[in-house]
Every structure is written in structure tokens, then in C-alpha cells.
Amino acid sequence: MTTELTLKLDDIDLNVLSEMVYEENRLSTFFKNGQGLSGRWPFLEDCNCTPEKMATAGFFWCGSESQPDLVRCFVCLKDFEGWEPNDIPKDEHKRLSPQCPYVKLGKEQENCTVEEVMELCKKSVINFIEKVFNTQVEQYTNLAKEISNSLVELLGESNMDVSD
């Protein structure tokens, strides 16, 4: 019996994330059927932030019609948008997420060892689990506050504290 683990946080799916370790998979997110798609990545040529350079810098496209230049790093899971044609993806990644393990490694995928790629995968999953955990804690904390406020209103007691 096989059980597939599907963890999802907002729009980050662990199964999709695991495919983004491969540069060619990241690159394919910027295109549909090998052709640039209007409403997808707005910088296809004659600029620094082409899909190829974005994928090499560790990014995959996760945007929408309203956010056509939104990308995410497959390791640190940080989102980046507001790209300008002259932005250099590698430099922007390093500037805005200097602690990212992919940035710190300082190598393009083609120069990485299998061990280095596996370490990046591990760090990506750890970052994902931390995001899920932090989101869950925030949701439960907010729910506890709502319940506490409801109880205060219901019982008229103002000395209840659920901040811990």
C-alpha cells in the first residue's frame, strides 16, 4: 500500500516544489508548450531577467495575470516581484535573500554535485515545513484570541488571557 503525502501551504505544494530542484523544470514554468504565454513571464528577450536566467538563479514562475512577474526560489521559498528589465536575477536573489542556501552555495546547478543538490532539497523541505508550522501556529493563536474574546463577551469577564 502506497500513501502519497500531500502538504500544501497557500499556493506552495510540496510535490510541485520537489520538481523545482531541476533547472529545466523551473524554466518550463515560464512557458507553455515551449512558447511564451501572454500573461505569464513578461521578460522573454533583450533583457537581463529572461526565463533562462531566472531559472539559473533558482527561481520558478508562480505568478498570475495580476502578478505576471512573481517568482519563488525553490530553496528559501521567498517570493520576488517588481522585476525591471535590467535586474540581474542572481544579484537580486543574493541581495534580497543572502541567507538562502542556494545563494550561499554560489554554484549553478550544472556545477553542483549530487550531494549538494540533495542538501538543497533537504533545506527546501525544511523551509517548507517551517512555513507550514509558523502558519499553523499563527492560525491557532488567532483562533484562540477569537474564542477568548467571544468568551469575554459571553461571560463578561475581562481577566482572561490567552496570549501564551
From TrEMBL:
Any Gene Ontology biological process: negative regulation of apoptotic process
MF GO annotations: metal ion binding
InterPro entries noted in UniProt: Baculoviral_IAP, BIR_rpt
UniProt KW keywords: Metal-binding, Zinc
Pfam family of the protein (one): BIR
A GO-annotated cellular component: spindle midzone
Record protein name field: Uncharacterized protein
Species of the source: Daphnia pulex (Water flea)
